[in-house]
Amino acid sequence: MAALSSPESGAHSSRVYFESPGGPGEEPDEGPVRRQGKVTVKYDRKELRKRLNLEEWILGQLVLLYDCQEEEIPELEIDVDELLDMETDDERGARVKELLVDCYKPTEVFVKDLLDKIRGMQKLSTPQKK
């Protein structure tokens, strides 16, 4: 099943159309069956935007720290939710420094700025189904 955009849908449409493959008894020249679905947002958009901006900032900083292209950054994951679960900035800073152990450039400014940026952010947990 593939998601399709409807021709009349705009950039901010809340409708998604799904194309189902032909089933038994369906005429081959009828074309795909289209059903309408609705997309719902369960996260606060403002928090999502803050998180996206933070992740883009982190990526840019890692490019500078490792002095390489985005594709060449060593495999590492700075999990913001993991950092938010920690009790103190000292713990958070130690974890980030641990992740950047193979970086040859000084990381203190990056760590300080990252901790400043995540202060006050909310953890994005998967919403529970009702």
TrEMBL record:
Biased composition (Polar residues): 1-12
Organism of derivation: Microcaecilia unicolor
Family per record: Belongs to the PP1 inhibitor family.
Cross-referenced Gene3D superfamilies: CPI-17
Gene name, Swiss-Prot/TrEMBL: PPP1R14B
Molecular function GO labels: protein serine/threonine phosphatase inhibitor activity
Region ranges (Disordered): 1-38
Name of this protein: Protein phosphatase 1 regulatory subunit 14B
One BP term from GO: innate immune response
Pfam families the record matches: PP1_inhibitor
SUPFAM superfamilies according to UniProt: Myosin phosphatase inhibitor 17kDa protein, CPI-17 (SSF81790)
PANTHER family: PROTEIN PHOSPHATASE 1 INHIBITOR POTENTIATED BY PROTEIN KINASE C, PROTEIN PHOSPHATASE 1 REGULATORY SUBUNIT 14B
Keywords, alphabetical: Acetylation, Phosphoprotein, Protein phosphatase inhibitor
A GO cellular component annotation in the UniProt record: cytoplasm
